[in-house]
Structures are given as structure tokens and as C-alpha cells.
Amino acid sequence: MSHFEHGRLCELETGVHRLVAPNPGVMTGPGTNTYLLGERDITVVDPGPLMAEHVEAILRAADELGGRIARIVTTHTHKDHSPAAALLRERLSDAVELVGAAIDDDGFQDASFAPDMAPEHGIDIAIEGGQLTALHTPGHVGNHFCYLHRASGLLFTGDHVMQGSTVVIIPPAGDMGHYIESLQLMRRYPLAALAPGHGDLIREPEKEIDWLIAHRLQREAKVVDKLQHCQPADLETLVVPVYDDVDPALHPVAQFSLWAHLLKLQREGRVGEHHGRWSLL
Fold first, then answer.
1. 266, 273 in Cβ contact below 8 A?
2. Which tens digit of pLDDT belongs to each residue from 259-274?
3. Are the CB atoms for 207 and 167 separated by under 8 Å?
4. Does residue 31 contact residue 18 with C-beta atoms inside 8 Å?
5. What is d(CA 197, CA 159) in angstroms, rounded to the nearest whole number?
6. How far apart are CA 280 and CA 224, in angstroms?
């Protein structure tokens, strides 16, 4: 039986369980991971998409653990991570605390999101068995937080780190410079493993974070190199040589991350843009 079977409760560490939402896909892998922390006073991390089937699975999981859902914590408000919070609260009660940061809707956000508490970087949230420390990690999106489960050393990374693939950065809410800085921030904490929003636990967190930083900087260097040969160029033209190692069917999505790289280089005074065409300075 697959440990990514939708709706099946999977124990990862003492007091840490995972449910996988039934929304598999190119961007979501096996589906969005929902984590349940504790067994009596339960904290739900990333309740997932607005799917009644998944909400029912969360409620069944809480019953299976023999506890009650006391709070819901979100890493960010993309539509595959936070919308189920509203339906969960309807099924439970408004006494269930909702923690997360709101952001202006850019077409990709959960417009229903209305938190009771907005986290700040470094604050500790009291949960069963210890503390959950909020780390502000903008980059994938400006309101993104990762959460460090102090008892286990697991870092719930939302979409900042995914297992098996890199995340898309979509400006203006997404920012490549901030993304790399947030990876460097994560590197400063003692981590046992990364618990991503999609995919399995990553047991070598420092190695993964270092690889991601190097990968993004290598891609940036490739942007500069390819611009030398085809400038000025628009995103549609430039994505082909810069992402020649990626399935061309994914190039329309890759254009977002390419744009994020170019905006970072523009802020650094290394490239310029005129009427949608980019050149080295």
C-alpha cells in the first residue's frame, strides 16, 4: 500500500502524521500534504484544497487519533494549500484558531482566507508536545512561512521546498532574490528533515537546501549566458535556450521563474527591459 494513498493517515514521527489530498498533478506531485501534529490537541498544517473528500479525511483522521482539531496553520494561501480551512471551520467551530498570513489576490490566492492570527518571524506557537516556530520565508510567494517542529526537528516547508522538483516563482508575489535568501535562512536552523507540501520527507535537509541554492544560481548564470547570444529577447524566446533541459510542454510555466530571475538581475543592475524585451547592461 502506497504511503501516498489519498486519505490514508501516515505516521512520520511521534506525534506527526500526514494525509495526502486527492489533487495529484504536474504541479502538486502525489497531492498536497496535510500534516496533523499531536494526538489530543491537534494542529493541522496546510489543510489543502477546497475538496470535501479531503476535509472528511482530515476529520476522520482526528477521530482516529482520538483528539480534536484546535488550530489550523497555513504556510501560504495558494489554492492547493489553504482553502479547506474555511470548510473545516464550518464543520467544527469558529473556536478553531486559524493562523497564517494574508496577501492581496493576484489570481493565484485563496480569496476566502481570513486568519485569526498572522504569524511573525521567530514566534513560537504552543502546540501539543512543544513549540512550532514560524520562519518567514518569502520567495515562492510573499506571505510564505515555514514552521519548525521543535520536538522532531521537522521543518514544514509548504511550497518553498518540494520533494522531487523545484518550485515555480511567479512575480510579483514571488521573488527569486527573496527565495534564495529564505533558503539561506533555513540553513541556519538545526533540521532533522524537511516535510514538504508535496512529496516525501527529505532526510538530508542541508544537502537539499545547498543544492537548491546552487541550482537557482546556475540557472541565473545560464540566463546571463544565453542573453549574450540572443539579446534583446522576450520571455517566450529566452525560455527555450535557458530551460532546454526541461520538457517544452512546461516552458509556459517556466517563463514565470525566468521572469523572476530577470527581475532579480534587473534589481542588481545587470539586465534591462524595454517593451518586454530583455538585454544585458
1. yes
2. 999 999 999 999 999 9
3. no
4. no
5. 6
6. 7
